[in-house]
Amino acid sequence: MNTSKLFLTINPSGRRYTILLLRTPAIFLTTLLLTAVGIGAAQPGAPAQANPPAQVASPADTTSVHLASPLRQVVTVALGGSYEGEIVMVNGSDQATTVQVFQVDFLPSEAGVGYPEPGSLPRSNARWLEVGSGDVQIPAGEQVVVPYSIKVPNNPNLAGSYWSMILLTPSDAESVQETQEGRVQTSVRTQFRYGVSVVTNLGDSGESQMSFDNPKFERPQGGAAAHLQISLKNTGEQLLNPNLSLELYDKSGAQVDRLEAQAERIFPGTSVRQDFELGSLSPGEYTAVVIADAGGEDVFGTRYTLNVGDSDTP
Fold first, then answer.
1. CATH 2.60.40.10 domain range(s) in the chain
2. Which of the chain's ends, N or C, has fewer CB atoms near its CB within 10 Å?
3. Does pLDDT of 49 surpass 80?
């Protein structure tokens, strides 16, 4: 039997789709595993229960189990302190189901998201986090609370933000079978799982820093829209969730345009790629001022000179 895997990562939604294809001469069996993970934009520094539930998925068309608690839980805990949180799962079907619970680390990057072993990353809080792993039974039409607790070590060398993820995989799945020309049978099995990110901010400790790297300016031929792409890298110790703006000026100093965007959450040591569409620009020299406002005193900026018609590199 031949096996092949296709991995697709779609940003900024943070959803990872894994397609596993199993081929036999007469039967094609496809398993589609969808993971909703809470790694997108959110407000840092707030208690877990204060995170807005707008990111809570309820895919009734995919699985009978859904979450009634946020996919992203950000808590602030002092050194040596503790916190107790919960994940609420609801079984909307008329049959009991089982949900497997386990921990992983996660590391966002411009290319996608990696899921290494829990506690393997330098800024993992997985070893501070206790959650009942294994199988959780949810009776039909009822909800179950999965509690977790965080115990932060009293280590003065710790500062900033630490994170990991709790994965929940319901056992139920939908299957569809089709027969083509009476010879080939196709079975599609869809399974949905949730990734609840748990971020621990150690008070207001840690530095906030950001760098603007790898700028790329493109102005396609034929008058198409110009684009400025920048990598925003969190070089500090705190989770950043910046609001972005770009102000474009011509050579005389007159403002040509102002753009605004919301970046993904940028974890320490990681970066996101931001694309600003500048529209159709006439030949000449422009100045682009990029500002990343992460709140309070955490405001970062950079400036680029764009030569339209002379160079594609700021």
1. 39-170+194-201, 210-308
2. N
3. no
Return the CATH class of domain 39-170+194-201.
mainly beta
| Tens of pLDDT, residues 228-239 | 999 999 999 999
Q: Cα separation of 197 and 213, whole Å?
A: 27
pTM, entire model:
0.75
CATH 2.60.40.10 fits 210-308, yes or no: yes
Please provide the size of the chain in residues. 314
208-218 pLDDT, tens digit each: 999 999 999 98
**Cα gap 139→259, rounded to integer Å:** 50
Q: Minimal CA–CA distance to 102: which of 85, 121, 115?
A: 115
Burial (0-12, 13-18, 19+ Cβ within 10 Å), 159 = middle
